[in-house]
Amino acid sequence: MRFWWGLSAAVVFLSSCGYHAGGKADLVPTGVQTIAIPAFTCYTTDYKAGDLLANSIGHEFTERTRFRVVSDLSTADAVLSGSINRIIRAPSLSDPTTGKISTVAIIMIMSINLTERASGKVLYSRPALTIKENYEIASDPHQIFDESGPAMQRLSQNLARDIVTSVVENF
Question: Which of 75, 114, 129, 156 could bond 124 through an S-S bridge, CB–CB 3.0 to 4.6 Å?
Fold first, then answer.
């Protein structure tokens, strides 16, 4: 009988050691129910990137969170704004036999802020967020398919997932 009491006490003690899973606290106050995500300012020649990114982030917030995404900034409890500061396309792999470029990397450097509209308090900020996506280039000139568009779409979706996870799970 003593053994079972000792074992029970040990289980209770070890299970209440104070550790808990990190990354579960919501950064956003409970009063924030709606978020506006305007098109991001784009300081590059890729003028569609700002709209694509805002749409991807809005979709991710709608699918994975308690927040409702609204288009009117004046009705939103919080505003997620950002700027795409630079997009770099650079060769990342080349074919060793021909020396031709086979893979290109798209690197996006941006800044993002989530601000509570009523108080102006910054709830989340990443001033130098960088993300990278690769895409292949066809080696046969007769089979050219521009993969840069789908690569930019993947980059936007991955970035949206990262941002929403960071905001909601406090990483």
Answer: 114
> How many CA atoms lie less than 13 Å away from 6 in the CB half-sphere?
3
pLDDT of the chain along its 171 residues, tens only?
A: 554 444 444 444 444 444 334 444 456 788 899 999 999 999 988 878 888 899 999 999 999 998 999 999 999 999 999 999 999 988 887 777 777 777 888 899 999 999 999 999 999 999 999 988 888 776 666 666 667 788 888 889 999 999 899 888 764
Kindly report the pTM of this predicted structure: 0.73
**Of 152, 131, 166, residue with least CA distance to 55:** 152
Which amino acid is located at 99 in the chain? G
C-alpha separations of 163 from 8, 9, 17 in Å: 43, 42, 32
Burial 6-27 (b: 16+ CB within 10 A, else e): eeeeeeeeeeeeeeeeeeeeee
